Amino acid sequence: MESPRKQGGRRGATSVAAAAVLLLLAGLVVTFSGLRGPEASTPDAPSHTSASSLATEPSTTTAPPQSDGSDKAEKTPDPGFGPSMPGSAPVGLTIPRIGVRAENIVDLGLADDGTIEVPQDASQPGWFSPGPSPGQLGPAVIAGHVDSTTGPAVFYRLGELRPGDRVQVARADGSTAVFKVDKVETYEKKAFPTRAVYGTTRHAELRLITCSGEYDTQTGYLSNTVAFAHLV
Fold first, then answer.
1. Which among 47, 67, 120, 148 has most CB atoms closer than 10 A?
2. pLDDT, mean of residues 50-73
3. Which pTM does this prediction carry?
């Protein structure tokens, strides 16, 4: 989607590219308080530590497309695609390819100014809890910082994911939702594909989002990296 409003400067954690789910937040302009992150294609890029970096907002934070009300009627995935799971909050995240093993996932909601909250700890990913939980029908969204004033953060290597890689999300009900990465894309915030990231889906899908691209000392990172995955 298009990028949301930018918030603050780049402090210890960059703005999280959290997504607004069309299913629950149709028509609402959602913005993220920016996730910081080095360019996704170059995970070894030096970390920016200026205080203004926190202001970056992922391009994925633009307003989601309008809903005509038909979204709620879609309760069954396409035959042969794979089962969906009942709702259950995510409590852990493992991504072998990029060395992510988070034993805690914080809930992210909307701040008073309409922006998405960001994790206080750059080592923890955050789940946009007003939307679907990982495994449910629709696009579940997990956002994470790319770096902080002290170095790389949880999604620093997100751009290294490749189609076929697995993402495991431990859930509060004791189950694990396993996703297969379909693609990883980097978008300039001014050209963010809102519908592709936040639009209603008929399948259980996952979006992993962080900031990337060049870093501007005034506005923060100029792009967002998004990994698209589906439940297997």
1. 148
2. 36
3. 0.70
